[in-house]
Automatic annotation (TrEMBL):
InterPro entries: AB_hydrolase_fold, PHA/PHB_synthase, PHB_depo_C, PHB_depoly_PhaZ. PANTHER family: BLR0908 PROTEIN, POLY(3-HYDROXYALKANOATE) POLYMERASE SUBUNIT PHAC. It comes from the Bacteria. Gene3D superfamilies: alpha/beta hydrolase (3.40.50.1820). Residues 225-424 form the PHB de-polymerase C-terminal domain. This is Intracellular PHB depolymerase. It comes from Rhizobium johnstonii (strain DSM 114642 / LMG 32736 / 3841). Keywords: Plasmid.
Length: 427
């Protein structure tokens, strides 16, 4: 399923309702989901008996009936983070158990550590996950690979609908603050790896820390398929982001969290809207995938069906973004490209990547990436003008799309060794 999945950008639907309608979007979605819930529950109950009752355990009709029931039971979007499900990793010639620890728990994000049972000192890496409608577990493959040689931490962003209004706002500047706070918690000598959308905020955080000569400034910074300069080779995603006014985004896509949730009343960009936007960009592909899933289920091909189910279990788990983070990202990252133009500020203070002098830079792009095109990430090299040549490296993986940059066979076998070598060189 990897290759062209737009999982880390803000792709708005082509059309949406007026401001009055948008105010009720969440309530309408929740009402519809509540109506469908009993049908899903009934389908799950019938699945228990479908193999033996009425149709017979081995009959073709029975298998099709069971497949239809499972498809109905899976007709659901969830707002709960899936488990990382990383329990072990191969370190050297032995399998080491892995446990997930909470290092720092803040209202809008948690710093997690994947602790391994090893006494060897390993480079510490902070993986900065996208905050774009899906949970950090989408980077499970990235983390699993990094764990072979590194002590891995990750930013586990909160679902905004579960954050009470009393926690305040969370915008782009706050995102940068969280990255810096997490690096401080990890301590001096760490490394940072940002995937997709947060490449902008990660670069900003390193620039601010470099200017302040902060002791926790990371030794290396790996930016993977991120919109450092979205004006380079604009994709459909970039064009959608600049095709509407900021007022349109505010009036059409922002809605209030229903009162049943902890974040009741908070204005958010709902994760279910982001999911619809993603799927609408390649609806035929998703329809074909579900036809294949039904066929596999009906034929009893559990392994093949399991691969598709695993992907969509993750894909249909969504989180909401705060209004301020979504709107500021649309405006500052995509519409104004503030980082690339030198206009980006952090709490009113100019962000200057030219202050980065000791943090080695690695950028990674996919040659078939139709979400973050060639040149958008490598633009970081011109911005980090004070870095000496031996502290800069760019890797172009010609045969992968967006998702393949940080997950899958090419990531593990060809991209990861470049990342590992950059980190080891600066240890």
């Amino acid at each position: 399923m990897a290759g062209h999945i737009p999982l880390a950008f803000f792709a708005p639907p082509h059309r949406c309702g007026s401001a009055g309608v948008s105010a009720m979007l969440y309530q309408a979605y929740q009402f519809q989901d509540d109506l469908i819930a009993p049908l899903r529950d009934l389908a799950r109950r019938l699945q228990i008996f479908s193999a033996t009752a009425l149709w017979g355990s081995g009959s073709e009709m029975g298998r099709h009936f069971a497949a239809a029931l499972e498809m109905i039971s899976r007709f659901e979007i969830t707002h709960q983070r899936p488990d990382f499900a990383i329990t072990s990793v191969m370190i050297g010639n032995r399998v080491a158990p892995v446990t997930v620890e909470t290092v720092l728990d803040l209202p809008f994000g948690t710093l997690l550590r994947f602790a391994t049972d090893t006494d060897a000192k390993r480079p510490r890496v902070l993986v900065v996950a996208p905050l774009s409608g899906h949970f950090a577990t989408l980077l499970r493959g990235t983390v699993q690979t990094l764990l072979r040689d590194h002590d891995v931490y990750i930013t586990d962003w909160a679902n905004a609908r579960d954050v009470p209004l009393s926690a305040g706002r969370f915008g782009m500047d706050d995102y940068v603050d969280y990255i810096m706070h997490f690096l401080e918690e990890i301590g001096p000598g760490a490394h940072i790896l940002a995937v997709c959308q947060p490449c902008v905020q990660a670069l900003a955080a390193v620039a601010v820390m470099s200017e302040e000569r902060h002791p926790a400034t990371p030794r290396t910074m790996t930016l993977m398929a991120g919109p450092i300069d979205p004006r380079e080779s604009p994709t459909k995603v970039n064009e959608l982001a600049v095709s509407k006014s900021l007022a349109w985004f505010e009036n059409s896509l922002i809605t209030g969290v229903p009162w049943r949730y902890r974040g009741a009343g908070r204005r958010v960009y709902p994760g279910f809207l982001q999911l619809v936007a993603f799927m609408s960009m390649n609806m035929q592909r998703h329809q074909d995938a579900h036809r294949k899933l039904y066929d596999h289920l009906a034929k009893g091909e559990t392994a093949e069906a399991g691969k598709i189910k695993k992907f969509y279990d993750e894909y249909f788990a969504v989180l909401d973004l705060t209004e301020e983070f979504y709107i500021e990202t649309i405006e500052r990252v995509f519409q104004k490209a503030e980082l690339a133009t030198g206009d980006l500020t952090h709490h009113g203070r100019k962000v200057d990547p030219g202050q980065i002098r000791n943090t080695a830079l690695l950028t990674v792009e996919g040659g078939r990436d139709d979400i973050c095109a060639l040149g958008q990430t490598s633009a970081a090299h011109d911005l980090c003008r004070a870095l000496r040549p031996h502290l800069k490296r760019h890797h172009l993986q010609a045969n992968v799309g967006h998702y393949g940059v940080f997950s899958g066979r090419r990531w593990e076998g060809e991209i990861y060794p470049v990342v590992r070598n950059m980190i080891l060189a600066m240890e």
